[in-house]
Design brief:
Blueprint: E1 4-9, H1 15-23, E2 25-32, H2 35-44, E3 49-52, H3 60-67, E4 76-79, H4 101-112, E5 116-121, H5 124-127, H6 131-141, E6 145-153, E7 164-172, H7 173-182, E8 196-197, E9 207-208, H8 212-216, E10 227-228, E11 236-237, H9 243-254, H10 269-273, H11 317-323, H12 336-345, H13 349-376
Parallel strand pairs: 1-2, 1-4, 2-3, 4-5, 8-9
Antiparallel strand pairs: 5-7, 6-7, 10-11
Helix pairs in contact: 1-13, 3-4, 7-13
Length: about 375
């Protein structure tokens, strides 16, 4: 089967690239400005050209030349512009200068004219404070592309995590028109179909959501501050914990999994003042459900519901990676804090893979139509 080329802008540690690679794409180039993330990217994507650059300082002709892609090639330009300004978890700052980087992504789309585009971001970009910016983005893209977007739950695509993301697919108008003329039914919905569901009793054709226990239950037991590595399992390392936090986790696990159960001696003073703020902090994951959304603090119990379901510690780097659906051969580089941020910021590979598979189907259909047209001539 033909390998289609892809470029990943704002590639980070490589979650989107990993999914695209597994879906059948040939990753030609990854671009980002974060040193730590690019070290991890380099560790895992040996065939891709890696560019450290401010996206504002690079143009489409340079990217085409560096990636050895021709402008008329059937290729994908993918990207996940920084989303902190739109995130419900982040600062929600509409004036954050990073919010404008999405327009550099559009600039490069216009300069390179890829046949297909893929963008992933937080839901707040389309429904929250980023709604005005996103409306402009869609309007600009529709000048040259047929566009569809929706907020998808990563758990519906085999990711053991409740993580809602805005996913946008686009097909250049000339290609879309050719495909629609031949396959009108197939072109009505160009987003990936769900593969998993919360309750299979409601839809037995799909698989059941992947639980935390199923995702990480087979990993070797480690204590807080310990690590385990055997040449097959990498980055299985957890943060150290104070005695009082060990007591808290033990108590929370035995009394429902939430910090609201803590007695007077174990409660934190800051939590006593604001009982309804950040209620997931110091929480313990449920073995039988997908995890809550992972953030850059996903290996720290004070940052969310990141307590291991059966052991008195926070989840390890490898466990966090599995909950994001990274494969075990994907190796992270950097300090424990840096690796946590890389994982929390990543696109879940299985969600990216679902997008990649859908787009590749259309790429094949388009190429087959062109081949038939040539034969008829």
């Amino acid at each position: 089967m033909k390998k289609y080329k892809a470029i990943d802008l704002f590639c980070g540690a490589g979650g989107l690239s990993s999914g695209l690679l597994k879906s059948g794409f040939e990753l030609r180039l990854g671009l980002d400005i974060d040193d730590d993330a690019l070290k991890t990217y380099k560790e895992n994507f040996h065939k891709a050209l890696i560019i450290k650059s401010d996206i504002k300082k690079i143009n489409g002709d340079e990217l085409l030349k560096l990636s050895k892609i021709k402008k008329n090639d059937n290729f994908l330009l993918a990207g996940c512009p920084p989303c902190q300004g739109f995130s419900n978890i982040g600062k929600k700052d509409p004036s954050d200068s990073k919010n404008q980087l999405v327009f550099d992504y559009i600039r490069l789309i216009n300069e390179m004219e890829p046949s297909f585009i893929l963008m992933e971001n937080v839901p707040g970009m389309s429904t929250g404070i980023g709604k005005e910016i996103f409306s402009r983005v869609v309007s600009l893209l529709k000048e040259k592309y047929f566009v569809q977007y929706d907020v998808l739950n990563a758990a519906d695509y085999g990711v053991p995590q409740i993580r809602k993301r805005l996913v946008l697919h686009g097909v250049r108008h000339d290609i879309y028109n050719i495909l629609y003329e031949k396959y009108p039914e197939k072109m009505k919905d160009i987003l990936p179909k769900k593969t998993h569901v919360q309750d299979i009793r409601n839809n037995q054709k799909l698989k059941e959501w992947v639980s935390v226990g199923k995702a990480i239950g087979d990993l070797p037991r480690i204590e807080p501050g310990e690590s385990y590595e055997d040449g097959k399992i990498y980055n299985h390392v957890s943060r150290n914990l104070s005695d009082i936090n060990l007591q808290r986790l033990d108590y929370i696990r035995k009394h429902g999994g939430s910090r609201v159960c803590l007695n007077e001696s174990l409660s934190l003073s800051c939590h006593k003042k604001i009982t309804n703020s950040y209620g997931d902090t110091y929480g313990v994951m449920d073995d039988n459900k997908p995890s809550s959304t992972l953030t850059g603090g996903c290996t720290c119990i004070s940052k969310g519901r990141y307590g291991h379901p059966t052991q008195n510690r926070a989840i390890s780097i490898r466990e966090a990676a599995r909950l994001q659906s990274f494969s075990d051969d994907f190796r992270f580089v950097g300090s424990l804090g840096s690796m946590s941020v890389q994982i929390g910021n990543a696109v879940p590979p299985k969600l990216a893979e679902a997008s990649g598979k859908k787009i590749i189907k259309y790429m094949h259909l388009y190429d087959s139509i062109l081949r038939n047209i040539k034969r008829e001539k």
